[in-house]
Amino acid sequence: MTTPLQKTDAKVFRLIQKEEKRQQETLSMIPSENWFSPSVREAVGSVFSHKYAEGNIGSRYYEGTDIVDELETLAIDRAKKAFNLLRSWGVNVQALSGSSANLAVYLALLQPGDTILAMYLPDGGHLSHGWSFEPDAKKREKEVKSGLLVYTGGSKKVNITSLLYNPVQYKTDPDTSQFNYKEIEKIALKYKPKLIITGGTAYPRIINHRKIKAIAKKIGAFYMADVAHEAGLIAGGAFPSPVGIADVVTMTTHKTLRSGRGAIILAKQDLIEKINRAILPGLQGGPHNHNIAGICVGLGEAAKPAFKKYAAQIIKNTSALADALKAQEFKLVTDGSDKHFVLIDLSQEPILGRPFARILAHAGITTNYSTMPWDARPPRNPSALRLGTPVLTTRGMKEKEMAQVAQWIREAMNIAEPWKELSFEKLEQEVIKSKDVKQIAKEVKDLCKKFPLH
Ligand code: DSN
After folding, report:
1. What's 7's DSSP letter?
2. Which residues are noted in the entry as (6S)-5,6,7,8-tetrahydrofolate-binding (predicted)?
3. Which side of the chain, N or C, has fewer Cβ within a 10 Å radius?
């Protein structure tokens, strides 16, 4: 059957087909990615994208919004159920992304110049929690070697959070690469932030929300838990929830939650009203109703027993992947993981994060290079590699397949070892010529065929 797009714009149609084939025939191990159900995609591609609906339920600046109101009410109700919300908490589903959700919280709760205490970005925090980079490699190395568990910023403010507010960041413990709550408390008492944030992109362990809330309480700060990565694990009952402990919880909806692209903010009722006003008129115009429709459908799927199994299997798969990688003699940051990804410390391997991610991409395994604790290397060429299991688990893969993946990753490192002195470009030329890399890509494709994405 010919689709309308195929008829009217064959070029874009072909690109979509090519991208779908790429996703089907390779293993996406980027932990922030997932594959949505056809129902979520149908909702996202629906007529809701035509409608303007600035404002909140029952109080919009546009006519014709009754059905959008119904949709948003349903999405909010489903979010309340998915995250076991207390009656005194409210929900916003209008933020366009995780970064916008976080900015809306700052706009609602802080004044420009206020101090935010968040996790050090190279240890696994998030850019939207504030970041100023130190471009001078010597100064960077000196800072890392100082062993200090607090980072007050480099000379280059790289994002709006660091331009508007004063980010101070806590690092992980040098011995364990995990949170050192005593140090976080000392830093909080010294710098007196108005807001403490946990969460981010590359911290593989459980965070003790009660301990952080207790620290925030001591200094009269708000506590915001950003659970963008863990949202699906929490909704599936496989991971501890900050709801009812933190003052605000933010998340994206397209990672483990598998609900289309967007964000959800949960907060105590008085705060959510301020946050609603920070979203509009503070930051955004009309909400993306089609994405809210996707979120709504995804949350409906997350309420089903199959999603609980999915969330539990993600954790089992990651644990199996961690064990298998260690059996292949890879070193893992924190020696393992409690959630949906692992971070491989490649600092003692012949090939580091960026080139290794490219080698694996040619072998059909899509990952991303990452910074890691106590690594002075720059973010564009760091020592670690982040590998997640949400998409593999969506495919129906289990522990056995994780062992196979770990074996391919070791094989790829062995194949690449002789190229360790080459520049990135020359190394890639060798990878492209390599029959051994092609062989792994073929085996990956065969495995993908056995576990198609529906
Ligand atoms: N870009 C996301 C990630 O990969 O973790 C976070 O925003």
Report:
1. H
2. 121, 125-127
3. N
Which ligand 1 atom minimizes the distance to the CA of 128?
Answer: 7
* Residue 325 annotated as lining a ligand binding site: no
Q: Is residue 133 classed as helix, strand or coil in its secondary structure?
A: strand
Q: What is the pTM of this model?
A: 0.97
pLDDT at 377 over 90: no
Residue 6 Cα to ligand 1 midpoint, Å, equals 32
Asked if 276 and 105 count as a contact pair (C-beta separation under 8 A), the reply is no
34 Cβ closer than 6 Å to some ligand 1 atom: no
- Please say whether the beta carbons of 202 and 343 come within 8 A: yes
Amino acid found at 340: H
Is the CB of 98 within 6 Å of ligand 1? yes
Place of tokens 């994002």: 159
DSSP E strand boundaries for 61-111: 89-92
* 255 catalytic per annotation: yes
199 Cβ inside 6 Å of ligand 1:
no
Residue 390 Cβ inside 6 Å of ligand 1? The answer reads no
CB atoms within 10 A of CB 54: 15
DSSP 317-344: HHHHHHHHHHHTT-EEGGGS-SSSEEEE
For tokens 């939207």, name the residue.
128
pLDDT of residue 419: 97
| 290 marked as binding residue | no
Taken in order of first residue, the domains within the chain and their CATH numbers are 47-302 (3.40.640.10), 305-450 (3.90.1150.10)
| Nearest Cα to Cα of residue 150 among 172, 128, 134 | 172
Task: For 278-312, write each residue's pLDDT tens digit.
Answer: 999 999 999 999 999 999 999 999 999 999 999 99
**Percent of residues, the chain, with pLDDT higher than 90:** 95
Altogether, the residues listed in the chain come to a count of 454
Q: What are phi and psi of 202, to 5 degrees?
A: -145, 30
Tell me the per-residue pLDDT of 4-63, one tens digit each, with 9 for 90 and over.
Answer: 999 999 999 999 999 999 999 999 999 999 999 999 999 999 999 999 999 999 999 999
